[in-house]
Design brief:
It comes from Streptomyces griseus. The protein is α/β, with parallel strands linked by helices. It has 15 helices and 21 strands.
């Protein structure tokens, strides 16, 4: 293996093909670098490490733990876990953490999501660039790699699943919900590990779909953002006459919802629903974060329930940073990442799912009727276009709408153009020659015309 760290160290995590792009040797170097950059300077004496069900995950995670221990850190190995279970351990134990997962990527991939104590994110600007630089130096000159310290740390196993589940249930009371039938598609990912414990004892009939842990993903990709991966869940909800369907991604930090008809529920609608509940828990006031491509419904609902909406760029580091800066109660993204102040500002799809179940089970209406209050406007979803020059294309679109009556434009994240009747956002991909279009309008006809017009400008 010839490692090119520029290809695998991303903005927020490490991600690449095993063993072609990285392996256990490099993972041990990452462990040593993580110790030197994040843990030791902060005075941490230990870290926590967990992993998903991919075939390469246990070996990579243990190598990382060994690399950190050789720098004097004690390591709490929590084994199989979801990403939000790792965040729970980081928060509850007040330790830096490393989660080995490639989320929804294919089986040959693996990665590391890193955090400081209290689940605070580690990204390019908060330590990941330094970790990469150290590991690159040690790869280029193996003689410069740090020797094990005289008193290496210990490696201890600990199971945090029951404590994680109990903590989530302490935040949302689902003990008194009416009997519900819920189909859960774990996609052979970590939801199959966490859901039985989190929902155990709750008055629900859970119909499991693909709960067998299998990092080769034999049934479908563990990426519910792609509609084709919801088809089995939708069919099962209809066949079972279920009240709801839930789908988790590979590392179970995102949760998607389908209603009793098998129709997908917009993550923006879930964001608005959870925001209303979190505001009610906090006396009808507080801040809620949403990224700039969530629906108009989100800030509207937040204001209607006494809260203050704050708009951010897309991406978990921006959401978490703004939550920390404002003391926000909750944050939501169009991608079904949901962030909670009571969960160390980290994202947890499982806690959002508990809110959905409590909301549905606390009243008699079907979920489609309940969620209609929070799903007010038609949206395009994300539409990708391949372009040769992203910035030139964005400039061309901006010029085309510069004199549009009532239009305002901002560049918080890509280009957003807004009028009283519609808005659209055009963002460049950081890794591919793509522009991503999201649009919303007051009615379907206007949305279809807007989407057609913008795509004509983008695609020619």
């Amino acid at each position: 293996m010839t490692a090119d760290l520029s290809q695998i160290v991303k903005a927020y995590d490490v991600r690449g093909v095993v063993p072609d792009q990285w392996d256990e040797h490099l993972s041990a170097l990452f462990g040593a670098a993580f110790a030197q950059v994040t843990a030791v300077p902060a005075g941490n004496k230990a870290i926590v490490v967990g992993h998903d069900m991919r075939p390469s995950s246990p070996g990579l995670a243990h190598a990382f733990a060994r690399g950190a221990a050789e720098q004097g850190l004690d390591v709490v190995e929590i084994g199989l876990c979801s990403t939000d279970q790792l965040y729970y351990a980081s928060g509850a134990l007040d330790l830096p953490g490393a989660m080995f997962t490639a989320s929804h990527n294919p089986a040959r991939y693996n990665g590391i999501k890193l955090c400081r104590a209290g689940a605070a994110p580690v990204g390019q600007d908060t330590g990941l660039a330094e970790i990469r630089a150290l590991a690159e130096g040690w790869l280029d000159d193996p003689a410069s790699a740090p020797a094990p310290v005289a008193a290496p740390g210990t490696l201890d196993r600990r199971d945090t699943l029951a404590d994680y589940a109990a903590y989530l249930r302490s935040l949302v009371d689902v003990s008194a919900v009416r009997p519900l039938k819920v189909v859960v598609d774990a996609g052979n990912g970590m939801g199959g590990h966490t859901v039985p414990t989190v929902l155990g004892g709750v008055p629900l009939e859970v119909v499991p779909l693909y709960f067998e842990l299998d990092g080769t993903f034999p049934n479908h990709e563990a990426n519910p953002l792609d509609p084709k991966n919801l088809v089995d869940l939708q069919a099962r909800v209809r066949a079972e006459g279920a009240d709801l369907g839930l789908a988790f991604d590979g590392d179970a930090d995102r949760c998607f919802v389908v209603d009793e008809r098998g129709e997908p529920v917009s993550p923006s609608a879930v964001t608005a629903l959870v925001a209303a509940r979190e505001l009610a828990r906090n006396g009808g006031h507080g801040t809620v974060i949403h990224n700039l491509i969530t629906s108009w419904s989100v800030p509207e609902v937040v204001r209607e329930h006494g809260g203050t909406p704050v708009r951010t760029r897309v991406g978990h580091s921006f959401i978490k940073g703004e939550m920390a800066a404002t003391g926000a109660l909750f944050g939501g993204e169009h991608s079904a990442h949901y962030y909670f102040r009571d969960f160390w500002n980290a994202d947890t799809g499982m806690l959002a799912a508990l809110h959905v179940l409590a909301a549905l089970g606390g009243q008699p209406e079907p979920f489609s009727a309940l969620v209609a209050e929070y799903d007010r406007y038609p949206g395009s979803g994300e539409i990708n276009s391949t372009v040769t020059d992203q910035q030139a294309t964005i400039a061309q679109v901006r010029a085309a709408y510069a004199d549009h009556p009532g239009a305002t434009a901002d560049t918080l994240d890509g280009l957003t153009v807004t009028t009283p009747d519609w808005w659209f956002n055009l963002r460049p991909s950081n890794t591919e020659p793509l522009l991503r279009l999201n649009a919303e309008a007051r009615d379907r006809t206007t949305l279809e015309r807007l989407t057609k017009d913008v795509l004509h400008l983008v695609r020619g």
